[in-house]
Design brief:
CATH topology of the largest domain: D-Maltodextrin-Binding Protein, domain 2
Shape: globular
CATH class of the largest domain: Alpha Beta
Mean pLDDT: 96
Number of domains: 2
Order of helices and strands: EHHEEEEHHEHHHEHEEHHHHHH
Radius of gyration: 20 Å
Distance between the termini: 28 Å
Structural class: alpha+beta
Helix content: 40-55%
Length: 332
Amino acid sequence: MLNLDVVWTSEFAANKWIMPLPADAIPTDKMIPATVNAATYRDTLVGAPYYTDGALFYFRSDLLKAAGIAARPKTWDEMKTACKAILALPAAAGMSCYAGQFDKNEALTVNFSEAVASAGGTVVDAEGKPTVNTPEAKKGLNLLVDGFKQGFFPSDAITYLEEQGRRAFQDGKLVFLRNWPFLHASLSATDGSSKVAGKFGITSIPGTDGPGVSTLGGRNLAISPFTANKATALEFIKFFTSEEQAKKRLALSSRAPAYASLYADPAVVAKRPFFPTLLTSLNNAQPRPKVVQYGATTKAIQEEAYAAITGKKDTDTALNDMQAKLTELSAK
């Protein structure tokens, strides 16, 4: 049995390193559609969603209120307008507007993909062919490029991964933050370690014309065709990924389940009040590029996106170079 990050589904399936699962083995009709999509290769289920993950938009609710802003931002422009008002407050002295994860790492592929999708574009099409030489992709990448150029992102955010962003927001240095759900516990800590406990809210990430599109995270369980214990592996996967077990794991872990019903369970929501918001994010989520050579693909995306946001290449050049690299990879 294999425990795979969702990004590896296509590569492992194409190389026959994992095998198709029986259509009736996993209750996919009860699962969030995006999680099933991420476990599917060429319309065949090859993995069982184990847990999932979606982007959340953390914001300083106390500062929005102080600035007289009643509605949480849904778009990048609304966020920038809110930041101008908030950063003029004495209480926001020394703060920055927004951060995501922009170091040259898998997290940059996530943030780039979200920016492009939130601007109405795609990184690859349904056949895995690259589509980054489009006006929508340019608009998405420019959201990140302009964020640094215009000073809405702190300059050191170019080195941020998830943990650096958490610390910056938790220490009261950011108004807005894009990150994963795992932050909620540490941000809410009342032991003095968090300066924002009771002062933040959570909503969907922003887009260009409305709420944005999250990149899907999570893991799938799959079966190796080379094992002598295929039946046993399948029985374990059916047990381990069942709705009953998913609910039990919520008492032990912060991992988000694949079952939609658990996001409305009163007992679950009482402990994780952000779950309804997370479900909205997951229902709108898209996978990272579903391609056979994911490792090389994400490397190419990171290189060109990083070149653009650091000013080493203009947006058009970076996207044209990315398109060329991804086209070469998709032809192999």
